[in-house]
Amino acid sequence: MPLLSVEHISFSYGREPTLRDVSLAVDPGEIVSLLGPNGSGKTTLLKIMLGLLRPRQGRVRLARADIAHIPVKQFARRIAYVPQTHRMAFAYRVLDVVMMGRLPHKPFLFKYGKQDQELALAALDKLSIAHLSQRPYTSISGGERQLTLIARALAQDAEVFVMDEPANGLDYGNQIRLLEKLNLLAQEGYTFIKTTHFPDHALWVSDRVLMLKKGRVVADENAEKVINEKNLFEIYNSHICVEALPEGGRICMPQTMRDHMAHTCRYHGPPELKCL
Q1: CB–CB of 95/70 below 8 Å?
Q2: Which terminal residue of the chain has fewer beta carbons within 10 Å of its beta carbon, N or C?
């Protein structure tokens, strides 16, 4: 049974539909990437999954329950949102930011206890950033902030992490480290649904990819099957090759770059890469 399912969702901000009959079923421990150009409906779909927008038709289920009928605190204990960018006006300690994830488990008037702090420290340690616990959140790097927000979601004890372009604005090293952490957490049973503008990122860590264009599903399947030249041209209107590497794995490459590689390597024979 899917952990989270989106069933025939349609939505419109005005006359022009933003999402048209979109369905998606996510199993526990999966990493699912939503891939598509700007304006394709990716972020709108995330907001509907989070209950922030009500669809014109269709519904979202968490396990078997319609999320519209799940109490807010109960919902927040199971689904966490990790935003694309996040800035705080006050210089809270990183540990305090992570402990904020305990809010869905607390009554209206409460104090954080020893257990809350232990859970927050354990979440920081799991992401290898425990050394930041006493640092002001406002003074750490973008990559460290993103990991802090994931730690907050872990402290929240959520099963599903909904992430809006988590690698956006991060340098290349932090992008790789972030993807590695997502992959490790998925192996522990956590579930991730994320939007991305990077087909390579979707290839590297995703179990499934849902491709969207103008609110319609272009493809929804295993990442290696979905991310191919035909589908990438369909959503981006650009010729992009998906190259099979000799030792396994795949990368995306603009056709012009591939042609340039073939030209510069002509004295050594053509590259042993096949455009899929």
Answers
A1: no
A2: N
Print the domain residue range for 252. 239-276
For residues 167 and 145, what is the distance between their CA atoms, to the nearest angstrom? 11
Q: Are 101 and 152 in contact (CB under 8 A)?
A: yes
Give the Cα-Cα-Cα angle 186, 197, 164 (nearest 5 degrees).
55
Query: Rounded to 5, what percent of the chain is helix, strand, coil?
Result: 40, 25, 35
Predicted local distance difference test score (pLDDT) of residue 206: 93
pLDDT band for position 213 (cuts 50, 70, 90): very high
Handedness of CA 196, 201, 207, 212 (dihedral sign): positive
Q: First and final CA of the chain: distance in angstroms? A: 33
Between the CA atoms of 26, 163, 181 and 152, what dihedral angle is there, to the nearest 10 degrees? -110
Query: Please, are residues 143 and 174 in contact by the beta-carbon 8 Å criterion?
Result: yes
| 58, containing H or E segment | strand 57-62
DSSP-derived secondary structure letter, 149: H
Closest CA to 45 of 221, 150, 191, 194: 194
- No. of H helices and E strands in the chain? 10, 12
Average pLDDT value over all residues in the chain = 88
- State whether 214 and 243 are in the same domain: no
Q: Are residues 251 and 161 in the same domain?
A: no
Q: Which residues contact 38 (CB under 8 A, 6 or more apart)?
A: none
H or E, element range at 231: helix 229-236
Residue 182 parent element (H or E): helix 172-187
- CATH code of the domain in which 212 resides: 3.40.50.300
Judgement on whether residues 126 and 251 belong to the same structural domain of the protein: no
Largest pairwise CA distance in the chain? 74
